[in-house]
Specification:
By secondary structure, the chain is of the alpha/beta class. The chain contains six helices and 32 strands.
């Protein structure tokens, strides 16, 4: 078993204990991570099993070693979870939250179905108040169906037969499960939009249990309140942020935000949050090249392709420390971007990105049965298209408030790509404050804010595309296997090297070729493959277990940082 340095600290009593939703914090919560009963049954089974086959450590997927099971579930089977929790009903409502479940989940409390959800990557919750017993133990059962690549749902790189760039599936609960107590009327969500041109923050608060309610928003800089506004739920409120401190990789400043639900002057409910004042756009530099600009200044976007897989937890990192370690190393290596590749992470990952100052390109996870290197628009059934667009919208809603996210990537390399022009317009309608990368790879359809190609090992300059920035969305992939840190003895990479010295020279050669493309030809971004080795891929900056950084950190940082000064302002 290949494992990370954090695996040994994982136990049933100490598994992802952190508050799972940093942008909307309440004190009244109970973590349900830990040991649950599990059973695998035939797909035809309608009722919960009478007996269970063992225990599983939630929130690790059943296929992972850290789950304690390390067993797959086929498309002809169901995965069941069960646990009890001590909970005394009160005058408040009780919400049961799931960070993410792959893929089709139905939830029962004390034998009553409280709701169902389809989608691997977005959080969901159910109000379970009316299903609770009057006192004592409450039984929670979760029924999961996950067809992986036997169906058309978004699934990223998960496949039943792993090879090359396709990896082990994640089935079932893979993010934190938790209970939250809220009043009868409570804040259910909000949207924030920074406007640095006018030094304001737009805030819209949603409230559950009431058609309209009084709300208040207070922005603070440390212990100092700097702005306050009151109004009604559903109404867009404006906070004036004088002399705003702008968020950037060099200075990732975050303001605190408290939102309150009011009954007259009394506070009924409140949540703590934060925000960053920043603006992302396309603009021309002094040489006329179209660039990605942060806060009105052209910035070369240079980053790592980040798959978000772990040898011991698969989709689930072993600990919160592990979750931010990859971001920390990315920053130490001198990159200013992470392209989160066909996976959506837990909320805490984006929180760490916000506070550590990394720009995030967020991919929509790919879907459909045949995803291998499409050639543009393909046929999609209406149901498959509707599910893709539903999950895309949920992703945007889920991640909208994180300042680190500066770009949405809709399709990757033609994998499940369909109706590109319409879907891109749909993406633009959901968020006009960020850059839309319609297609990354070689299936460009002439829409979106950038023209994005891939070239291995590259680099290569994209052809001109009037009105769009030129992006090298993937290149590199230089491989170096490290004995004792491999998933399997067989490995794969776009180019393979035998020594650290050979690898470093090859990387330096790539950077030197990249320089004139940036300075003279207007390349506005590039993404190197990749952060870590993943399963049989050996082309990471780090080994899969994160134990070895394959090149000297200072050398790589110096090479990377030399790129940023090539962009004229």
């Amino acid at each position: 078993m290949l494992k990370t340095q954090w695996a040994d600290s994982v136990s049933a009593d100490n598994v992802h204990p952190e508050y799972p939703r940093p942008q909307m914090v309440r004190d009244s919560w109970q973590n349900l991570n830990g040991l649950w009963d599990y059973a695998i049954t035939a797909k035809t089974q309608e009722n919960a099993p009478e007996s269970y086959q063992g225990e599983i450590l939630v929130p690790f997927p059943i296929e992972s070693d850290l789950s304690g099971v390390a067993k797959g579930v086929s498309a002809s089977e169901l995965l069941w979870y069960r646990r009890t929790v001590e909970l005394q009903p009160s005058d408040n409502r009780v919400l049961l939250h799931f960070g993410a479940v792959d893929w089709d989940a139905t939830v029962y409390v004390n034998g009553t179905e409280v709701g169902s959800h389809r989608g691997c990557y977005d959080p969901f919750s159910f109000d379970i108040t009316d299903a609770l017993n009057d006192s004592g133990q409450q039984e929670i059962i979760v029924r999961v169906f996950d067809p992986t690549d036997d169906h058309t749902q978004p699934r990223g790189k998960q496949v039943n037969s792993q090879e090359g760039i396709w990896y082990t599936p994640t089935t079932g609960i893979w993010q934190t499960v938790w209970l939250e107590t809220v009043p009868q009327h409570y804040i259910s969500g909000f949207r924030i939009v920074p406007d640095i041109d006018n030094s304001t923050l737009k805030v819209t608060v949603q409230v559950a249990g009431a058609d309209s309610a009084g709300v208040k928003a207070v922005a603070s800089d440390g212990d100092t309140s700097i702005a306050e506004v009151s109004g009604s739920s559903g109404e867009t409120l404006t906070l004036n942020i004088p002399e705003a401190k702008l968020w950037s990789p060099e200075s990732p400043f975050l303001y605190d935000l408290k939102l309150s639900l009011l009954d007259g002057d009394a506070v009924v409910d409140s949540v703590d949050s934060y925000f960053g004042m920043r603006k992302i756009e396309m603009m021309r530099d002094s040489n006329g090249h179209l660039r990605i600009a942060l806060n009105g200044t052209p910035v070369f976007n240079y980053g790592l392709l980040d798959q978000g897989f772990w040898p011991d937890g698969l989709y689930t990192p072993p600990t919160d420390e592990a979750l931010y370690y990859d971001i920390e190393i990315t920053r130490q290596l001198g990159f200013n971007v992470i392209r989160k590749h066909v996976k959506v992470e837990p909320a805490r990952w984006y929180y760490h990105a916000d506070r550590m100052g990394i720009l995030v390109w967020q991919d929509m996870p790919s879907g459909d049965k045949n995803m291998k290197f499409g050639e543009g628009d393909m046929e999609r059934t209406p149901d498959a298209a509707a599910q893709f667009e539903l999950e895309y919208q949920r992703m945007v809603d889920y991640l909208y408030n994180y300042p680190s996210i500066v770009m949405w990537v809709v399709f990757n390399e033609g994998w499940g790509q369909y109706d590109t022009v319409r879907v891109t317009e749909f993406a633009q309608s959901l968020d006009d404050t960020r850059i839309i990368n319609s297609v990354t790879g070689w299936t460009d359809m002439g829409v979106g804010d950038v023209h994005d190609i891939h070239s291995y090992p590259g680099p290569e300059m994209p052809p001109e595309s009037p009105g769009r920035g030129l992006v090298l969305g993937e290149f590199g992939g230089l491989g170096l296997p490290v004995d004792g840190h491999m998933w399997k003895s067989d490995f794969w990479g776009y180019r393979a090297y035998d020594t650290v010295e050979e690898l470093t020279k090859a990387y330096r050669d790539l950077i030197e070729k990249l320089c004139p493309m940036i300075a003279d030809e207007g390349l506005c971004a590039a993404i190197y493959t990749q952060t870590t080795d993943v399963e049989t891929e050996a082309n990471g900056m780090m080994t899969y277990d994160r134990a070895v950084i394959k090149m000297d950190v200072d050398t790589v940082r110096e090479l990377n940082e030399s790129l940023y000064g090539l962009v004229t302002k």
